[in-house]
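TICKET: design request
STATUS: open
ATTACHED STRUCTURE:
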């Protein structure tokens, strides 16, 4: 692609790179430690097609060690998508501090393929993006010794439609590594001890005991899980009598 080859030359002489386009599937690269920006014109929005921080080509940013061509940061694509998708302008910084260091001592770069679209809401339902963020809408009063599945009934986002706000259960749409986190706000003299379940089996614990407290307590827990397609994940109480509405949430995403 002519625009892509021109960009390669530009990268070697400029510390900050800007690319503007309305064309389809443009490729943009930033050498390590460079800052840059992509922009869509005429009211169109950015949709990231792919992104990688690492090295898969010895001709892009050729300075330094370039003999490793299978270097890929597993987190770079999802981070770039969430930073850029739906915006007219997206600022980027190609650093290992942001994306991690997938190959030590190798010269790395950030390479992005993107397009400009009219309606990002129609485009964002990319099957590669799986993420949900849900919270409970009302305070829950519970029986301390009766375990129950917690239903986080209000959804902020649910890309991939893998979380069910009626049952509180996340069902993995594909195999891979997922990160889950749940936060619990508990009133004074109350308790909310909980567990995260994978197919009904405990995979992590969360303690939020505020029985001796005089003000609200906020507790958070994070658990990584390697899932197979169809696996089910949810939060269940162990010993709990209260959970504060609006502020208590359950989130998860595929890495």
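STATUS: resolved
RESOLUTION: sequence designed for all positions
ATTACHED SEQUENCE:
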């Amino acid at each position: 692609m002519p625009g892509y080859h021109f960009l390669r030359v530009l990268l070697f002489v400029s510390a900050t790179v800007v690319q503007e386009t309305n064309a389809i599937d443009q490729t943009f690269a930033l050498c390590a430690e460079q800052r840059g920006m992509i922009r869509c014109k005429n009211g169109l929005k950015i949709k990231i097609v792919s992104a990688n921080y690492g090295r898969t080509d010895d001709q892009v940013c050729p300075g330094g060690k370039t003999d490793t061509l299978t270097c890929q940061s597993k987190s770079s694509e999802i981070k770039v998508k969430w930073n850029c998708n739906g915006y007219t302008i997206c600022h980027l910084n190609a650093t290992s501090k942001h994306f991690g260091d997938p190959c030590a001592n190798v010269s790395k770069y950030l390479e992005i393929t993107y397009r400009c679209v009219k309606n990002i809401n129609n485009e964002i339902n990319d099957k590669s993006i799986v993420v949900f963020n849900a919270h409970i809408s009302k305070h829950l009063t519970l029986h301390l010794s009766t375990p129950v599945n917690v239903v986080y009934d209000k959804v902020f986002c649910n890309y991939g439609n893998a979380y069910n706000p009626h049952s509180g259960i996340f069902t993995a749409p594909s195999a891979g590594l997922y990160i889950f986190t749940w936060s619990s706000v508990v009133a004074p003299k109350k308790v909310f001890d909980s567990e995260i379940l994978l197919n009904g089996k405990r995979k992590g614990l969360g303690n939020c005991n505020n029985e001796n407290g005089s003000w609200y307590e906020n507790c958070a827990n994070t658990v990584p899980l390697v899932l197979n397609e169809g696996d089910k994940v949810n939060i269940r109480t162990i010993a709990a009598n209260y959970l504060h509405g609006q502020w208590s949430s359950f989130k998860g995403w595929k890495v």
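CLOSING REMARK: The chain has four helices and 20 strands. The helical segments are 2-11, 76-84, 96-99, 120-123.
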